[in-house]
Amino acid sequence: MSRVHSVSVAAPPARNLPRLMFEAARRAEAMGIIDPSQVTSDAAGVRQLANRIRRAGVAASAADLLNNVEVPSGDELVAILHTIIAALDASPVPEYEWGGLARVFAPEDLAALLDISVSSLRRYQSQERETPDDVAARLHFLALVVGDLAGSYNETGIRRWFQRKRTLLDGRAPAALLKRNWDPDDAEPGRIRELARNLVELSVT
Predict the structure, then answer these.
(1) What percent of the chain has pLDDT above 70?
(2) Which of 21, 24, 27 is nearest to 144 (CA)?
(3) Taking the domains of the chain in order of start, what are their residue ranges?
(4) Residue 82 main-chain phi, psi, to 5 deg
(5) For the segment 39-66, what is each residue's pLDDT rounded down to a tens digit?
(6) Which of 111, 126, 135, 146 could bond 121 through an S-S bridge, CB–CB 3.0 to 4.6 Å?
């Protein structure tokens, strides 16, 4: 009697297009770059998203590549979205992110999370003073975490998430770990991002 062997076949990359589009749009919204309600997960939507992000000085090469292809394939769109997501992760844009996070947090709460004074926050937010690199890095980190959380929580839920104690953070709240001139590359912020990213994985499975 012959045996039938089941072979697992990876899903075509193009099937990931809606998920990647959602992930890229959620990041770009949290960073204050776009309004995702106007973005669709087709070639025109990816092109529109790429061009808006390009205006913020991010992922210009991906937008240029897409604009040079009349009818991109699904796999090409997936590759471009991977590039855009990686570029958004690596690119602080404080002139946009101050506004994006101001829609979620009150000035006092955002200043506390960034470990700066409210007066400094207002000067940076109004561009009266240029945002220092260390503050821009923290601001960007918060925008990315908010982007991750936006797949599962509304704005009220996001604010509460930062204040609630978490077993995976040794019984501490995320906000309690963002103290003393913290750096996004430190271990504790890394644990916070991992916790938020786990919510993204659950929301797409």
Answers:
(1) 88
(2) 27
(3) 14-90, 94-203
(4) -60, -40
(5) 776 788 899 999 999 999 999 999 998 8
(6) 111
